[in-house]
């Protein structure tokens, strides 16, 4: 695998729901150095934490509220078409699942890092996203399997 | 979702011990604290500042709070939410609490009966070591490689 950093800066859409998902996404920020990052989350008050990066807010929907999920899907689709990311990365949950699915459709590279809170098994979103994630990661070595998900370190 | 068991246990412990130095973010709790200072929600900067200033954090076993306490080097005592009591959707917080306890990184009270016993010895709690503000170098490198790899 060769590495190419000479071209224009990569556009990254970094997506996470609230609480622990968001805290874990922020801990990945050094991996986006030199990239054009747009953060997408569910809490307006997180804006102060991303410095000069772009920041978008979507509805905080979970798989328990189908109508709200649908609205969130449209919001993410709109952002996706606007940003046209090269890479979509998420630490969960529902917001990231949609973002990776849509990103894949639009030809972006996709990264799923399942939350470190999922110790006994991968999250529901994390299990379902496997075939759509170019890089499909768990943060626990004992959950890694042949064929994925892989373990390549953790957020701490 | 509310976590009244924890809010009530901490409030009653504070009342029994005449503690005026307890502040709680109680979220959707229905129980109204009588002794401790509280707020339903606080913004992220105040949340971080309060954790940085605290001697000990007492919290549900959610990764947001746990990681923030680790980053700021504040000892943390967690009590897992339980699905059967409608405090969360599944029991992943039990595994989170147990695993990080085994790693020596935090203290655990499994329920509202253990919590006051743990709080009686709260001044003995120590942090499990401060973590850096970013993910492991291994994970960062894996992401960088994937983001910048050339098309096959």
Provide structural commentary:
- The complex is a heterodimer of chains A (156) and B (152).
- Chain A has 156 residues and is an alpha/beta fold.
- Chain A contains 4 helices and 7 strands, in the order βαββαβαβαββ.
- Chain B has 152 residues and is α/β, with parallel strands linked by helices.
- Chain B starts with a helix and ends with a helix.
- The longest helix of chain B is centred in the N-terminal third of the chain and has 13 residues.
- Chain B is globular, with a radius of gyration of 17 Å.
- In chain B, α3 links the parallel β3 and β4.
Characteristic key phrases:
heterodimer, A: about 160 residues, alpha/beta, Rossmann fold, 7-stranded parallel sheet, 4 helices, globular, B: alpha/beta, 3-stranded parallel sheet, two-stranded parallel sheet, 5 strands
Biggest sheet character of chain B: 3 strands, parallel
Q: Indicate the proportion of strand residues of chain A.
A: 15-25%
The CATH topology annotation of chain A reads as Rossmann fold
- Helix/strand-derived category of chain A reads alpha/beta
* CATH topology value of chain B: Rossmann fold
Entry summary:
The complex is a heterodimer of chains A (156) and B (152). Chain A has 156 residues and is α/β, with parallel strands linked by helices. Helix content of chain A is 28%, strand content 19%.
Please write out the topology.
The complex is a heterodimer of chains A (156) and B (152).
Chain A: E1 11-15, H1 20-26, E2 36-41, E3 54-57, H2 66-83, E4 87-90, H3 94-105, E5 109-113, H4 124-129, E6 135-138, E7 150-151
Parallel strand pairs in A: 1-2, 1-4, 2-3, 4-5, 5-6, 6-7
Helix pairs in contact in A: 2-3
Chain B: H1 4-16, E1 23-25, E2 37-39, H2 44-53, E3 57-60, H3 63-72, E4 76-79, H4 92-102, E5 107-108, H5 114-120, H6 137-148
Parallel strand pairs in B: 1-2, 3-4, 4-5
């Amino acid at each position: 695998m060769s590495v190419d950093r000479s071209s224009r800066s990569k556009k990254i859409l970094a997506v996470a729901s609230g609480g622990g998902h968001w805290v874990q996404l922020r801990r990945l920020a050094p991996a986006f150095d030199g990239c054009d990052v747009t953060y997408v989350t569910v809490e307006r008050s997180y804006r102060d934490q991303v410095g000069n990066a772009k920041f978008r807010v979507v509805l905080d929907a979970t798989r328990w509220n189908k109508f709200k999920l649908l609205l969130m899907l449209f919001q993410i689709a709109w952002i996706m078409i606007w940003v046209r990311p090269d890479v979509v990365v998420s630490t969960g949950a529902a917001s990231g699942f949609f973002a990776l699915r849509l990103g894949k459709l639009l030809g972006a590279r996709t990264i799923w890092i399942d939350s470190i809170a999922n110790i006994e098994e991968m999250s529901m979103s994390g299990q379902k996203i496997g075939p759509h994630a170019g890089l499909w990661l768990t943060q626990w070595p004992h959950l890694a399997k042949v064929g994925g998900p892989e373990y390549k370190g953790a957020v701490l | 979702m509310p976590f009244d068991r924890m809010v009530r246990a901490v409030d009653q412990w504070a009342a029994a011990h005449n503690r005026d130095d307890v502040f709680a973010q109680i979220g959707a709790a229905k129980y109204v604290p009588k002794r401790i200072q509280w707020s339903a929600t606080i913004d992220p900067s105040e949340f971080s500042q309060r954790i940085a200033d605290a001697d000990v954090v007492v919290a549900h076993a959610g990764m947001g709070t746990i990681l923030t306490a680790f980053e700021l080097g504040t000892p943390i005592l967690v009590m897992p939410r339980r699905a059967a009591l409608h405090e969360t959707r599944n029991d992943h917080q039990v595994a989170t609490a147990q695993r990080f306890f085994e790693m020596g990184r935090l203290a655990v009270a499994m329920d509202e009966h253990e919590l006051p016993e743990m709080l009686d010895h709260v001044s003995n709690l120590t942090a499990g070591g401060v973590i850096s503000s970013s993910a492991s170098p291994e994970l960062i490198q894996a992401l960088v490689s994937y983001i910048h790899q050339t098309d096959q």
